[in-house]
Amino acid sequence: MSTDRDVTRIVRSWLEEGATALPDRVLDTVLDQLPATPQRRAWWPARRSNPMNLLRIAMAAAAVVVIAVVGINLMPNQGVGPPVSTPSAVISPTTSASPSASGDMAVPGPDLMMAPGTYLIQDPFPLRVRLTVGKGWASWSGNVASGAAIYKGSPDFPGGLGLVVVIVDNVYADACDPAKGLLDPPLGSTVADLAEALSNQPRTAATAPTDVTVDGFSGSYLEYSATTSTTECPNDLTRWPTVAGPREALTNEHDRVWIVDVDGTRLVIDAFSFPDTTAADQAELQAVVDSIQIEPPTAGSSPSPLP
What we know:
It is a single chain. The chain has helices at about 5-15, 25-35, 50-75, 190-200, 280-290; strands at about 95, 105, 110-115, 115-120, 130-135, 135-140, 150, 160-165, 205, 210-215, 215-225, 235-240, 245-250, 255-260, 265-275, 295. It is α+β, with helices and mostly antiparallel strands and about 300 residues long. The chain has 2 domains: about 5-75, no CATH class; about 95-295, Mog1/PsbP, alpha/beta/alpha sandwich (Protein Transport Mog1p, Chain A), CATH 3.40.1000. Strand 10 and strand 11 form a beta hairpin.
């Protein structure tokens, strides 16, 4: 992506439009301090173009702030007092290791690093799901009513990977054209119903569902990926809805999906990767899946209704 070049152009353009220009050494210092942020698609609703536009605007605004701070500190002292000392404008991701009520760590908020250890996905999610991660994992979503999503390094093409834990009630009739709406009549409530719907979703190549057990709960396992190119389907593939928006997958994404019945609640565990995801990362992703422990819903709880 051209994010760094775009930010450089924006900063230089901003300087050239002003009545005066800071010295090159100031601009170079500012550009060195700006973080290089990779492109990341939204977990649920947003198209990738929207986060990138916001990213460029935010980084340009940050550049203006940093220019002011760095310019003040690098300009000669005019005799009006000592240079002002300010905190760094570049903020590193925060590691969350806050324990939940059970003693497990709570899933941190969006785009925060996760310390190695065991995390609990819980209320407002109707199930309690534990998983263990190693070094380098981050939260994509935080713990929300729709579940949780995590990734390592990047959730995007060409070598990203991640894991989505969610409850699915229905799927889109055409993954490439969500305007066609959801399946109507809606799919049934069983594991087999969802496995069949995902297997038959247009523009999708899927393996035949096979029986599987996750932490003692029975279900089905299948793998699927897109059969369409970005030319034929320029948008992300829209797989299923959640209370927070649709689950969107890239056209070159490969998904391994476990669908299990947890005492009447249909849980989906979606491990996704891309063509350049390394074998070591694939093995680590599988280890996270293997670590999953599931507790049935408490009495009186039920999945959040879809919009």
